[in-house]
Specification:
14 helices; about 475 residues; four-stranded antiparallel β-sheet; flat; 17 strands; alpha+beta; Alpha-Beta Plaits
Length: about 475
Amino acid sequence: MPQNKKELLLELLSEEIPARMQARATDDLKRLVCDGLKEAGLEFESAEAFVTPRRLALVVDGIPEKQPDIDEERRGPRADAPVHAVKGFKGSLPKGAKVEKRQTEKGEFFFAVVKQKGFPSDILIGQIVIDVVRKFPWPKSMNWGEGHGPWVRPIHNILCLFGPRASIAITLEPGRDFRTTETMGHPFLSPKWFAVKNFADYKAKLLAAQVMLDPAERASVIEAEAQKLAKKAKLKLKHDPGLLAEVAGLVEWPVVKMGSIDKAFMDLPPEVLTTVMRHHQKYFALLDKKGKLAPKFIVVANTETKDRGKVMVAGNERVLRARLADAKFFWDQDRKRTLESRVQELAGRVFHAQLGTVMDKVIRVEELASELAESCGANSGDARWAARLCKADLSTGMVAEFPILQGVMGRYHALNDGENADVATAIAEHYGPLGPNDNCPSAPVSIAVALADRIDTLVGFFGIKEFPTG
């Protein structure tokens, strides 16, 4: 890197940043700082942002030591222009600009020769950082002090280095200064403060202090260690990139362990097991050679222990056991009643204030599904009956506890009640697709019910002038 260009290193150390906000936060930090540099006339070569649960970091390479000097000529109004026009032109010029009259082909005009020294970059960068902190667009934030705007969680420190030794003072409120050349490591394993010189030094010292700065590196370590444990147990890790990214955002120093599931809970529907593990505990599921759920799980901790995680694993097994005991209770209780017996309870659930109850919607969907059945290649009676039962599982204890299982539990209950497979499948599939990466219903009865449900929703909302925005 040329001698007249330097590296900017910025770290915002705070309490835990929610995992769901981290990816956007890195993009926003990079965008806001880079935009500020460009507006200040400071070109740069590259920029890269990083995030852990406790810190946002940015490194920008190739920033000049100061703004470029301005040496330009500006033409103003005609020499015989009104006085206020001439005053306005002179007032727009920076201090020290020389104004003179010159004859041109079009007449006599005022000209200004502007020569202005560029400001030092460190002064400009300090203000840019303060502006970024005060205006940062967190989806949710809190007030953690006075005079500096909200942040997602209280800020502990702001490290800001420009070049190998030049720190930039950051003051957000009177009497509150930050250690702008220092940071700290893992809060439990290495909580001491230490000084850094540049990004390479910063990253290396963080790693020595049990902090992996790059979320992609943490995800890679988690996956590799989980695969190793699974292979040792002759099992296979269930592919779940969304959970992997989330867990990588929960730890700075991933420690991967395997726990056991009480075999008494293995007769629960697999979707119930994975939902409890994934959504509530952030555990990874494991599969046996036949592709079925194994009575094991992967848990990722954020610290190392002297007993190599034995107490931690036992604690997670105990928590999971309690969660699954609740799920088993709901499963056993819900099966004591048929889906059909739950349909009338939908009359007590409001779908929309202007569109009636869920029961009202079901009645409409029944008629639509019956009409659409023939064009979908489905049996009209099956389509009508599937539409009748498709929302009934909303009244079960399991779906009340785990709403993400709506439709899925309806299918299990329909099969338990002796309904035919087409009807049961339609209950599960009529919500799909749930996004661009989800599968569309393919069975005829499922297609008829899914179309009827969506047509009713769209027509209803357009009818009350509540137009979709997506």
